[in-house]
Specification:
The complex is a heterotrimer of chains A (215), B (471) and C (320). Chain A folds into two domains: 83 residues, Gyrase A, domain 2 (2-Layer Sandwich); 123 residues, Cyclophilin (Beta Barrel), CATH 2.40.100.10. Helices cover 20% and strands 30% of the residues of chain A. Chain A is built from four helices and 13 strands. In chain A, the strands form three sheets. In chain A, strands 5-13-6-7-10-9-12 form a seven-stranded mixed beta sheet. In chain A, strand 9 and strand 10 form a beta hairpin. About 2% of the residues of chain A have low confidence. Chain B has two domains: 187 residues, 2-enoyl-CoA Hydratase, Chain A, domain 1 (Alpha-Beta Complex); 239 residues, Alpha-Beta Complex (2-enoyl-CoA Hydratase, Chain A, domain 1). In chain B, the strands form two sheets. In chain B, strands 8, 9, 10, 11, 12, 13, 14 and 15 form an eight-stranded mixed beta sheet that branches. In chain B, strands 1-2-3-4-5-6-7 form a seven-stranded mixed beta sheet, with helices on both faces. The relative contact order of chain B is 0.08. Chain C is mostly beta strands and 320 residues long. Chain C has a seven-stranded mixed beta barrel. Chain C has a six-stranded antiparallel beta sheet with strand order 7-6-9-4-1-11, with no helix packed on it. Chain C has a five-stranded antiparallel beta sheet with strand order 2-3-10-5-8, with helices on one face. The chains are: A alpha+beta (215), B alpha/beta (471), C mainly beta (320). Chains in contact: A-C, B-C. At the B-C interface, helix 12 and helix 13 of B face helix 1 and strand 7 of C.
Chain lengths: 215, 471, 320
């Protein structure tokens, strides 16, 4: 029987471990915990859907880091799952629901476009992890009922500020980039500014609400 | 067979290209009732006698075939002729047969030149026999490995590809066990023919000298300097320089060209005389010698010394490769072998410092102090234990550490340039590291005169079983 | 002046008094120091990257061949993490607007200063107004040009590295760009030439630790059999590898989707085609295909010098 604290460490080269817990819900909180108080030898932590990558500083003792990472995972408070941000911040993203794929998404879900908007704005989303591009947060909301697959053919260019859905996640494209997600709206909010501190609005654990604004 | 070497097989192709046409006389020939699997005999190469053993491709030779090999070796020993062996079989049937081949090869070492040519597989014991020859030539399809492939696969967990099983490519570049890779048997035979032209028939003979126009009548080669960059750290191809120093501007016949490239080793001709060449290559790691390059040069110097071939050493080096002593690549042990080889050599040793001579390496590489008969230096040579950058850095370091401002970039550069000017080769003449400073274009003439003067160089070695080379 | 007098007074030293020594070391960033005459196919500014930015979805980037970057920095007396230029295949032409001290390392690249051949892996002096030219590399893929003081463009998230995938950091160099150079470090160059071997043109051996997803392959050991060839799809993000038919393929034992997870430099990610991608410094921070193994960190520097068409052989690293 696996307890909620069970986890295994997979080797990811000689300078990283991949932590794969039985229960991934607390990974963002775990990453914040390691950022707050990094064990000796740990360079950085990257939580993702079901794993967290822990990278090591050059010359760090792999085995020692492995023991410490597992110890810290087991010591992580259970309530961390419920309070992932640690600071309780909620970012509100104003959205014009004018995305090219909004009707298609509604069709896929068998609901009206208005219902898609209602579900999107009605849920509280949590940034589960970041990736794909700087500032690109994978937003999860278990109750949102907005799971649609990616487009079969990705767009070569998606504009900055595009609000999108795919694979049960929602996201905002921080910059113009190629992308295969389904676009439901746009926001004027700046999600990424490399010269700002912090440069990204979203990071693992950040909670997000979407608010409809008039087109 | 009687002089007719038109038969099939790579091994026969080697002999056909090696021997003067019609000169081959079989000693043991399967076609004439000799044992299967081996053809032995003798003939002439450029008019001088050479013995040869050629295996037929395939299985383990029968004891009678091994006997024929042993007899051919004995003939080479009795008559003082170089021995060329062509390998295309694995093992030697019995330990006794193999032992006789090994003892024969060791007994001939340093007595007559031994060249091994591999045209097929030379595995197991044969893989150990090959390195006993002075020079190993492989054809492109040849291979040689000591370990049984099945055993190696079990132990290493890898089913090895042809390269891992000891292909010619591997031995030419990674292991250095093949001195040369030829496209086929005929090309291998032609290479060996040229190689033997640089060597005497035995340790009691002298290498052949070709008739040439007197070097003294030549115009100085004013263009040689154009090959040399002004920046002492800039790379250039030392083979181009070697070719300009040679008769007919021929590139040296290089051995191990693709292994341990920091040292160039090979044979050339100057004033018609055969000359072994050791040169650091400024295009490889700043002319620095690593362990492999030092060991390669050491073996070559001893090869030349064994057969009375004078050694010309060209020095342009930033030193031995700096490495920690705990580093597996540390050149210390191999550098000691090279030092021993030069210090032990009794053949004429001529050295030209063509550029940088930093660190211990120039001392080892045929310096006056290890026994060179003459050391020349070109005007661009810089003989100092360290380079100017290091000198000036030390000079100014105390100031910077003491909180006083060090020189700015431009001033620092001028200090370095000035210091470089302060280490001309003339200073090395004064302290006795160099005998004379010569213009590059006059070097051929100087070397020709020294070779003439050293023709009868004789060194009486002390009585001993043999020295203890730091292997 | 006192510095020169002190030197002259030191016993056993060669007299250098005649050379005037600057009283004041240039202490600030020299804004107008290096002019880019031609950038070659791709020249980027790189240091040792920006570790610690995963929280923003930002990867490490940095010099692809860190060993060559740090060697170039050591040659000119810089700290190892100073920013330098990473030059793909050569072709870079720079003009010095002030006196500069430089070093070129990495790919074996012919170098000249005002047309005169100059040393590779050696300390070069470029007087103001002179031109440094890199020819086409003979072996290796990336040369590094370090300038004493470091390339002092403004850092982004703590690093001056260009991340070509994320579009972060200074833009690749363009003709006409003028680069600032930082204050000279206290350490002087200590060696004229670093005797190092040039990258090989032959097969490159890389040691690989299997995992984290080796269990998703029917025979992960197929990676270690025979050789792989680097295809033309090869940049700072990664290098696609291929090999002739007949060699054992890297077959995935499950087609189940892998949710995105963090990947590292040197990871061998295997898409459904079975032809792995060897990740370089600008790899995406997460990937959705299984990673069969990861090249040892030390060997990633060797991988960075492998050209399209060259072959790679992988060897297993044993242990957890």
């Amino acid at each position: 029987m696996l307890g909620v604290s069970a986890a295994r460490l997979l080797p990811a080269g000689d300078r990283a471990w991949l932590l794969e817990p039985a229960d991934p819900a607390r990974l963002a909180a775990f990453a914040r915990e390691l950022e707050r108080d990094a064990p000796a030898g740990v360079e950085d932590v990257l939580p993702a859907a079901r794993t967290a990558l822990v990278t090591l500083r050059p010359g760090a003792d792999r085995d020692e880091v492995a023991r410490e990472v597992l110890r810290r995972w087991e010591a992580l408070p259970q309530r961390a799952a419920a309070d992932q941000t640690g600071d309780g911040d909620v970012v509100t993203v104003p959205v014009r629901y004018d995305g090219e794929d909004l009707d298609e998404v509604a069709g896929l879900l068998g609901v009206s476009p208005g219902e898609v908007v209602a579900r999107h704005t009605g849920a509280t989303w949590t940034c589960a992890f970041v990736g794909f591009a700087p500032g690109f947060g994978y937003l999860r909301s278990p109750g949102a009922r907005l799971a649609v697959p990616r487009r079969a053919h990705p767009r070569t260019a998606v504009p900055a500020g595009a609000v999108a859905l795919a694979d049960g996640f929602s996201a905002v494209y921080p910059r113009r980039s190629p992308g295969g997600w389904r676009l439901i709206g746009t926001t004027a909010l700046t999600l990424w500014d490399a010269s700002a501190d912090p440069p990204a609005l979203l990071r693992p654990g950040t909670r997000v609400r979407f608010a409809q604004v008039a087109g | 067979m009687n002089g007719d070497l038109r038969g099939g097989g790579e091994a026969v192709a080697v002999l056909a290209a090696l021997f003067d046409p019609g000169s081959f006389t079989p000693l043991s020939d399967p076609a004439a009732g000799g044992p299967d699997g081996v053809l032995t005999g003798h003939g002439t190469v450029a008019g001088r006698g050479v013995c040869a053993i050629a295996q037929a491709p395939g299985a383990v030779p029968a004891p009678a075939a091994v006997d024929a090999e042993v007899r051919a070796r004995a003939l080479a020993a009795r008559t003082g002729r170089p021995l060329v062996t062509v390998h295309d079989a694995t093992g030697a049937g019995t330990a006794r047969g193999f032992g006789e081949l090994v003892r024969g090869a060791v007994a001939l070492s340093g007595v007559v030149p031994q060249v091994a040519v591999v045209t097929g597989a030379a595995d197991a014991g044969r893989a150990l026999l090959l390195p006993l020859a002075d020079v190993v030539v492989a054809t492109a399809g040849a291979r040689s490995a000591l370990a049984d492939p099945a055993a190696a696969a079990v132990v290493t967990g890898r089913e090895r590809d042809a390269a891992g099983l000891g292909g010619a490519e591997l031995h030419a570049s990674a292991t250095g066990r093949a001195a040369h890779v030829a496209a086929d048997g005929a090309a291998a035979g032609a290479f060996v023919r040229e190689l033997l032209g640089h060597l005497p028939s035995s340790n009691l003979a002298t290498p052949p000298r070709l008739p040439v126009e007197p070097v003294a009548d030549e115009q100085p080669d004013e263009d040689l300097e154009d090959l040399l960059p002004a920046d002492p750290a800039a790379p250039y191809d030392v083979r181009d320089v070697l070719a300009r120093l040679a008769d007919d501007e021929d590139a040296p016949l290089e051995l191990h060209a693709r292994y341990a490239a920091g040292a160039v080793t090979g044979f050339t001709r100057l004033d018609g005389r055969s000359l072994g060449v050791v040169a650091t290559d400024p295009a490889v790691a700043g002319g620095a010698l690593d362990a492999a390059a030092a060991a390669k040069a050491a073996r070559f110097v001893r090869f030349c010394d064994a057969f009375g071939v004078p050694v010309l050493t060209l020095v342009d080096t930033a030193g031995f490769l700096p490495a920690g002593e705990d580093d597996p690549g540390s050149p210390t042990a191999a550098a000691a072998q090279l030092l021993y080889a030069y210090a032990e050599a009794s053949v004429p040793l001529l050295t030209v410092v063509t550029g940088r001579a930093h660190g211990v390496a120039p001392f080892v590489l045929g310096s006056r102090h290890v026994g060179a008969d003459v050391v020349l230096a070109w005007p661009r040579a810089r003989l100092s234990p360290r380079d100017a950058v290091a000198e000036v850095a030390d000079e100014v370091a105390d100031e910077v550490a003491g909180g006083r401002p060090g020189p700015g970039t431009g001033e620092w550069a001028r200090l370095v340039a000035r210091r470089e000017e302060l280490a001309p080769p003339a200073a090395a003449v004064v302290v006795g590291d160099v005998d004379a400073v010569v213009e590059p274009g006059r070097t051929r003439a100087h070397l020709a005169r020294w070779l003439e003067a050293l023709e009868r160089k004789a060194v009486t070695p002390p009585a001993r079983r043999h020295g203890n080379l730091p292997l | 002046m006192s510095g020169a007098a002190a030197r002259g007074a030191r016993a056993g030293r060669v007299e250098v008094d005649a050379v005037e020594v600057d009283a004041v070391e240039v202490d600030a960033v020299e804004v107008d120091a290096v002019e880019v005459v031609a950038p070659g196919p791709l020249t980027t500014v790189q240091d040792l990257g920006r570790p610690g930015a995963f929280r923003w979805g930002v990867g490490v980037a940095g010099a692809a061949d860190r060993r060559s970057l740090t060697l170039a920095n050591r040659l000119v007396g810089n700290p190892p993490d100073h920013a330098a230029l990473e030059v793909l295949l050569g072709g870079l032409v720079l003009r010095a607007r002030t006196d500069l001290v430089l070093a070129v390392t990495g790919a074996a690249t012919p170098v000249d200063v005002d047309g005169a051949p100059a040393g590779w892996c050696s300390v070069l002096v470029l007087p103001a107004g002179s031109t440094l030219r890199l020819g086409t590399a003979t072996t290796g893929l990336r040369a590094y040009v370090a300038v004493r003081g470091g390339v002092a463009v403004p850092p982004v998230l703590g690093s001056r590295s260009r991340d070509t995938l994320a579009g972060l950091g200074p833009e690749p160099l363009a003709a006409g760009d003028v680069l600032p150079v930082g204050p000279a470090p206290a350490q002087l160059p200590r060696l004229r030439t670093a005797p190092v071997a040039a990258p090989t043109a032959g097969a490159v051996d890389l040691r690989v630790r299997l995992g984290p997803r080796a269990d998703r392959f029917t025979d992960p050991g197929a990676l270690f059999t025979g050789a792989w060839t680097v295809t033309a799809q090869c940049d700072r993000v990664g290098a696609r590898l291929t090999r002739p038919a007949g060699q054992p393929p890297l077959e995935r034992s499950t087609t189940a989707e892998l949710p995105p997870e963090g990947v590292v430099l040197g990871a061998l990610q295997v898409p459904p085609s079975g032809e792995p991608v060897l990740f370089g410094p600008d790899h995406p921070v997460t990937g959705g295909y299984p990673v069969v193994g990861v090249v040892r960190d030390a060997d990633a520097d060797l991988a960075a010098q492998v050209r399209p068409g060259q072959s790679l052989r992988f060897h297993p690293v044993v242990g957890a």
